[in-house]
Write a structure and sequence with these properties.
alpha+beta; 3-stranded antiparallel beta sheet; elongated
């Protein structure tokens, strides 16, 4: 089997790309104990071992960036699923009192301000959605 770019993972498996007959180069994680594959993963693993790059753990900066991206994704999901259906719908918005509209506007702004919190991205305090 053709493979390229083998790199060890933290758990000892090897990430790589394999050449699929129909789809071309596809990502694959090779576990030598995988019995569900349609080919001998132990043989592929043994073939890649001498060529696999060592595992390099992520830096704290990379971990922080991943955490920040996850928090922003959660924030964006809350905006799209909680705020937009209310604030983006003229009929729903018009049916709210001025106090309710202000509560939703404040909630939206608090969500947008999450990345400016002192504990971001590891200690985020999520604002409370208006009822």
């Amino acid at each position: 089997m053709n493979y390229r770019n083998p790199v060890y993972l933290e758990n000892g498996w090897i990430d790589c790309e394999i050449e699929h007959p129909q789809y071309g180069w596809i990502p694959f994680t090779c576990n030598p104990n995988d019995t569900g594959a349609l080919f001998d993963t132990a043989a592929l693993f043994a073939e890649m071992q001498p060529h696999a790059a060592p595992y390099v753990p992520p830096t704290q900066e990379e971990l922080d960036a991943m955490a920040a991206a996850a928090v922003r994704a959660e924030r964006d999901l809350r905006l799209a699923t909680e705020v937009d259906p209310i604030a983006g719908n003229a009929l729903r918005w018009a049916a709210l009192t001025a106090e309710e509209q202000q509560a939703w506007a404040d909630y939206r702004q608090a969500l947008l301000d999450v990345p400016q919190q002192a504990g971001f991205p590891h200690n985020v305090i999520w604002p409370t959605k208006p009822e």
